[in-house]
Amino acid sequence: MPDSDSDSSNEGFQVRVALKLASTVENRSLEVPTEPIAVPADIGRKGLSAVVNHLLGRSVGDNDDSDNDSKSDADEEDDDKAQLNFEFIVSGTNNRLLRKGVEREARQHGISLEEAIPITYFPASNVPDLSEEKEELPDWVSSLSSSGSLLFSGCYDGTVHVYRNDQQALKEVHSVTVSSGPIKCLDTTVHKDQTWVATASLDHTLSIHTCDSKGKSMQAFGECIHEGFSCTTSSLNFCSAPSQLLASGGGNGTICLWDVTNAGNDGTDAAPKKRKTSSGKKSLLAQIRPTAVLQSAHSQLVSGVSWGNHSKDNATTLISGSWDHSIKLWDVERQDCLLTLNGSRVVACLDTSYHSEGVVATGHPDCTIRLWDVRTNQSNQSSVVSDKTFRPSHKAWVSCVQWSQTNAFHLVSSSHDGTVKLWDIRSSNPLHTVKVFGKEEKGLCLNYQASAEDGPKVFVGGSDCSIKCISF
Question: How far is CA 211 from CA 148, 173, 196, 200, in A?
Answer without folding.
Answer: 12, 11, 6, 17
